[in-house]
Structure formats: C-alpha cells, structure tokens
Amino acid sequence: MSTAPARQPLRVALLPLDERPACSRLPAQIAAVAGAEVLLPPAALMPRLREPGDVDALGGWLVRAASNADAAVVSLETLGHGGLIASRTQPRTVAEVTARWQVLAEIAAAGTPVHAVTLITRTPDSDDAMEEPGYWDPHGPALHHLSAELHRGEQPTASHPDELTAARAAVPATVRSDFVRRRLRNHALNLTALELAAVGVLDSLVVGADDTASLALATAELQQLRLWRTRLETEDRVSVRPGADEATATLVARTLLDLLDGGPVTVRIEAVDPHGLARVAPYENIPVGRTAAGQIEACGATVHTGPDPDLHLLVHTPDGDGDWAVEPLTKRSATAAQAARALADRAAELLRAGQDVAVADCAQPNGADPLLVDALLRTGLAHRLMSYAGWNTAGNTLGTAVAHAVTAVAARRAGRCDERAQLDLLAHRFIEDRGYMTGVRAELRAALGSTPGRHDHVPDGHPLLDRLATGLTRYAEELPGFHARITPGSVRLPWRRTFEADFDVTTGPAAPTAGVTVAAPSTTTAEETR
After folding, report:
1. pLDDT category, 486, cuts 50, 70, 90?
2. In this predicted model, what pLDDT tens digit does every residue of 251-265 receive, in sequence order?
3. Of 261, 292, 316, which one is at a domain's C-terminal end?
C-alpha cells in the first residue's frame, strides 16, 4: 500500500463527484479546519449539471495535482464518466471507464495514497429527469416500482410473480433494457473498484448508495458488494453504506486522520430514544444506527461503546414527520418538541463537562429540525459543538457531521486546528441546513410556484436571489455566539434551482484580534499546482 511523507502544510488533491458545493466546497471547508489545503480542478474541466466534464483533461490534472499533494481523494464517476450525472446518463463502456482509471495505479506507484469513492446507481421515485436519463419523465415512478419488484422476486420467500410481470409491463421494453444494462455496467465498475482496493491501488474506498429503499436493486447490489468486500478481506479499507454527496468529505477526513498521525478517534453513537437508532430513514435501506457506524468507519474513526470516547455523536433519529423539500412541515407534536429539547439538554450537559460533541439531525430528510436547532441555540453552547449537520438524507447528514468532528478532534490533538475555520464551518451548516433548507427555501419555492417533488429553475439575476441573500443574512445575524456574517455578493444557486444554495460566511470579530490566527483560503486551483 502506498505511503507518502507529509509536507507542511498538508495538501489533498480532490477530484469531486461534481461541481456542487456539497461535493467540492464542503471537503475543502473540512480540510481547512486542520489547516490543510485542497487542490481542485479548474472549473472549466468540471461537469456542468448534465454536461460531462473533460475526462481526459481531468485525468491529466489529477496526475499532476497528486504529485504535489500528500494524498488524493477521487470520485471514480468523475474520473471515468465525467461526473455523477454522466455516470447515469452517458453510454460509456466498462472498458472505456476502466482505461481512464489506469492513472490511479500511476499515482499510487509514485507514492501518493489514493482514496476513492464510487456509487451504486439510484432509482428515485420521481418523474423528474434533471439528474437522470431522459426517459425518467414519465417512467421514473414505474422504474422505481420495477426495481422493488425485481429485488422482491429474488427473495427466497418470493411468491407473487404476477406483480413482477405487471411491473415490467408498465415500462416500455426499450426503457427496461437500457435501465438494466446501465445498472449492470455500473455494478461491474463497482466490483472493479473493489479489486483496486484489494490489490492496494486504493488505500481506501467508499461505496455509497443514495435515494434507495429496503426493496430496490440498489439495495441488492449493496448487499452483493458487502459480500465481495468480506470475501476479499478488505473490511478495514472499504466502506459500503448509504450516502453519496458527502462521500468525498468523509474521505478527506479519513485522509487527514492518516496524515495527522495522532492515533484513532473513538466515537460513541447516542440517541435520546435508543430505539430510534433502529429506524430506517427515508431514502435509505438500513437502520440509521448502522448508517452512523458506516460513516464513522468511512472517516477512519472507530465506534466506541464504552465510557470516555473522544467524541459523542448525538443522533436526532428519524421521526417520520415529513420531508422539508417535498412538503415542508407546518405542525409538530409535543412529543417531537420534547425529543428535541432532550437532545439539546444532553448536548449541553456533555459540553459543560468538557466533552466533544457532534450532532447529526436526521429527524426529517432534506433539512434541519427547527425544534432541535432552536433548542440547541437556546442553550447558548451551540458554538462549542464540534459539528452539526441536518441536510438531505440521513447518510449525507451523518457523514458530514462525523467528517467535520473527527477532523476537528484530530487537528486539535495535533495542534493544527484552525479555530476560525472550525467556527465558520459550524455556522455555515446551521445557516444552510436550518436557515435555508427549513426556512428561506420554502419561501422561494412558494414565490416561484414550484411543483412539490420536482426541481424548479431560477435564472441568473432573478430578483429572488436578493430575497435569498436577505433571508440568509437575517438568520446569520441571529445566531448566538457566532458573530456570523454572510459575505456580500457570495449568495448563489449553483444549479439554478432552489434545492441547494451556496454562500460565504465568516465568524468572530470582523478583524483578527490578538491570539487568533485566520487561515488563508484553503482551495487551490490546478494552475497553482503545475
């Protein structure tokens, strides 16, 4: 397995899943907590929504950037297809993709550790084709049902063949054929990625699955990949779990944990309602407690069941109340409010005792639980958390919270923590997950007349962008203990839709004060690595 001497400062070459902030900006923010730099490809080479990136140029960039870095974190979909969406929509063959992966062996042979992520293809229950093959509109829901029936039919107790026949009949034969063949290709590529980990080309591998369900072809493939991980005896290097967009962030955390060389970080998983850890969150296929353990493993940390862990991970477990993107919640129960207060009280108790605490807000998908966030803020201690996250799926949330917190714990242990970057990222998550996803976003969608469950479109220069900036600024100013400010002119909608937003935030005094070190920007482009 490859090794490389660490230089000052630490540098990680990152080839993201795509150009969205969750895939590229978030890993850089996490690295900045440890005073590390992230090298990113020039924007001109990266994909733009459905337009694939320049795969040949990206491969060449990766080789050059990795030679100037302590480690490389690579999306295999971007390296082979030109991006995550391209891996679902483009007609590349297994041979074409694996040929582009050959640069990974070159990088590893030169002594740079390579950490990679690959994804199990999803089958969302929607007729929105923005991120899928064109036939998803109108056949997406029928394909989602077919996926479930194919998986159900493979169970030992399967006894309803007529349901599978009907599910097949609901989808045109040409669509069925393309759908299944694309899955076959991508599953073969995931098996190839496992082989790269087994032979040592990859120091670690994350296999993620997003937007899935208990019965789905993605779940069947996930189970098969776990079996092959065991057969290849790669459990210590390969993580197979729900989640996707946060995967490069978890790998950056794992990379930094290795490079900081301060020993393992132990994490205790806790919930106010211990039975809540056994619940399966929406869009996922295993209990949230297992998802949490998988994300800890992906970050290179260790699940700890005894006393005195390095980090307490408090999980606000799924409550089934709704979905902040599909249909924002308007009423909450007394039980939900009680659970939120209890978790906030537990966090405050641990913080007052000098313990490190991360909070993963998985109560509802696609946004933070306002009851929990407001309760955390009322303690007056939220700014002392190691991390907070509450966005999209439980896998996204847990991976983000763990990656941020594990990096902060390891960086403080090594004396390399940039405390301003730590507070900036914590504030960013509160503002984005609570201020935007469960606040401003609903206002914007109502103003646009957006259709629930479908993506909308907001062109550049639309007046709603001013409303968005005003809403985020108002929320930032209300955060107690952070002194947070949204940078004027930084607010944008990366994919010209309301689903996700991006912005710059700074915390603390407006100018550096004695004893406070403010790091330089931690993202470097390709031109600076040549």
Report:
1. very high
2. 999 999 999 998 999
3. 261
Residues 12, 367: Cα–Cα separation, whole Å: 29
Q: Confirm if 472 and 491 have CB atoms less than 8 A apart.
A: yes
Scan for tokens 């005896």, then name that residue: 233
Query: What are the strands, taking DSSP E only, across 344-484?
Result: 357-361, 387-389
Tell me which residue has tokens 């993107």: 325
CB 340 within 8 A of CB 297: no
The reported pTM is 0.92
Q: Where in the sequence is the domain holding 181, given as residue range(s)? A: 1-261
Contact predicate 62/43, CB 8 Å: no
What single string gives the DSSP state of each residue in 91-126?
---HHHHHHHTHHHHHHHHTT--EEEEEEEPP--SS
Report the relative pairing of strands 37-39 and 114-120 from DSSP bridges: unpaired
In a domain, 403, yes or no: no
Measured CA to CA, the distance from residue 11 to residue 466 in angstroms comes to 36
For residues 56 and 245, is the Cβ–Cβ distance under 8 A?
Answer: no
Is 32 strand, coil or helix? helix
In the listed set 261, 293, 327, which residue is the last one of a domain according to the structure? 261
Count H helices, E strands: the chain? 18, 14
